[in-house]
Amino acid sequence: MKVGFIGLGIMGAPMAEKLIAGGHQLYANTRREVPAALVKQGAIACKTPQQVVDEAEIIFIMVPDTPQVEEVLFGEHGCAKGKLTGKVVVDMSSISPLETKRFAAKVNELGAAYLDAPVSGGEVGAKQGTLTIMVGGDEATFARVKPLLELMGKNITLIGGNGDGQTCKVANQIIVALNIEAVSEALLFASRAGADPAKVREALMGGFASSRILEVHGERMIKRAFSPGFRISLHQKDLNLALQGAKDMSLSLPNTASCQELFNVCAANGAADLDHSALVQALEIMGNHKISS
Amino acid sequence: MKVGFIGLGIMGAPMAEKLIAGGHQLYANTRREVPAALVKQGAIACKTPQQVVDEAEIIFIMVPDTPQVEEVLFGEHGCAKGKLTGKVVVDMSSISPLETKRFAAKVNELGAAYLDAPVSGGEVGAKQGTLTIMVGGDEATFARVKPLLELMGKNITLIGGNGDGQTCKVANQIIVALNIEAVSEALLFASRAGADPAKVREALMGGFASSRILEVHGERMIKRAFSPGFRISLHQKDLNLALQGAKDMSLSLPNTASCQELFNVCAANGAADLDHSALVQALEIMGNHKISS
């Protein structure tokens, strides 16, 4: 199949490679030059998103944030300028659920179907083709695109209509941030009170406090293993989507707001490019105590 | 062995039964009358904690909070008035880690060993003998008492010295409360944005957001199954231990403080006796939106 891919960064490039490896003809575009490695594998470099749409049937987008998706779709040489009728736009970026509904409606008006399909699993998941993919859109379009998504991911769920995939991703990022914060407060309390945080983590792993975050990020905190992983600056972007969405919908998310403030404390202290488990450093600075094991 | 048990409430009574069932002679005391069922099983009712200590070699305490433990230990007819030399006091209540260190030191001065051994697992765990037990004390005493603890629990961990068991329990309660709050914010955001919270929960279960709380309490929130379980009023007591301890140690626990406030919102709206997963109701009231599935 003729498949398009717009946005070939840390995530996009390995995802595009999976589509080529799956036997598809890839039409690729990115803000800089299309990576030579990808062209070598058979990708055809396109100068604009418009050109990608003219050639491909299903067009994937993987760019940093809402404004970049809007530019790719509706900018000067954007997808909307190309031959869209009967095609599918699949936005795999993590962006605003509310804006996604607007983008989908506009793309539908131009005669194309739209899926929002943000992912979790990071660079490792992209390279291994094991991403979790949360999809919003109609069932027929989902069925049409699913074989391609299966080249890139493992747990692929249709959550609901357009926007619901992005909403699910935001919910995921809320829980991950708040669970990191929870483990941080608990291990810091334990350490400050004189208990061994490693023993506390072990004792809690089997019970009601158990979580993937306690398992993976709790260990990172104890071992001071803060090289990313998933950068604080990216999680700040995602919590901003949550908080902006909450404001737009008149919803109070007090601990999401608190976590964003703690990430700000991290950024103020040079930790914005560390793994998000380094959130614990904000509480350590505030409490003048470091977790020690 | 001659074993003492002081405090025969919802938790204490089934725990004491396990000791009798294990073949031990039980000397029992509680603020009201010793339950007839327990006497029928062979327990000897004692009028005071002092009398329990005079008869038994290892004395368990299971009462509501720090002041009650202090009263049992050092009150008018408290344990300290009995023949303590060479014996062991095991406090299984959930109380202040800092006060525990003080209590242990005083008991040691009287010639007895001390373990703090708070539990998690609730009434169900007590009845099934599957409690998680987090122990603080020295290794020799732990080894001496462990066969008795194994009659009451399954995951039994020596965390460290006196107070560390209580510290671990507080850390557990911090994570549980904050994970409940995290799931509440995420599912409420999803629901308010128009996504199906049940589908969102399912999609998140395999990934980084997964936790026992998302599994068990996320389902409670969606199904509106708020009969306890573990009451909000009890979790408020535990978060108070965390926040009081944090104040005493000069540590900032912003999201624990926020959760306590949300429990206060629940209490203000008649939900103090519901399961702690009903924390979501505070955010629902504040955001004027209920999770719907």
UniProtKB/TrEMBL annotation, chains A, B:
SUPFAM superfamilies cross-referenced by the UniProt entry: 6-phosphogluconate dehydrogenase C-terminal domain-like, NAD(P)-binding Rossmann-fold domains
EC numbers for this chain: 1.1.1.60
A Pfam family per the record: NAD_binding_11
Domain 3-hydroxyisobutyrate dehydrogenase-like NAD-binding: 163-282
Domain of life: Bacteria
GO terms, molecular function: 2-hydroxy-3-oxopropionate reductase activity; NAD binding; NADP binding
Keywords: NAD, Oxidoreductase
Active-site residues, Swiss-Prot/TrEMBL: K169
Top enzyme class: oxidoreductase
A GO BP entry: glyoxylate metabolic process
6-phosphogluconate dehydrogenase NADP-binding domain: residues covered: 2-160
Designated name of the protein: 2-hydroxy-3-oxopropionate reductase
Native species: Erwinia sorbitola
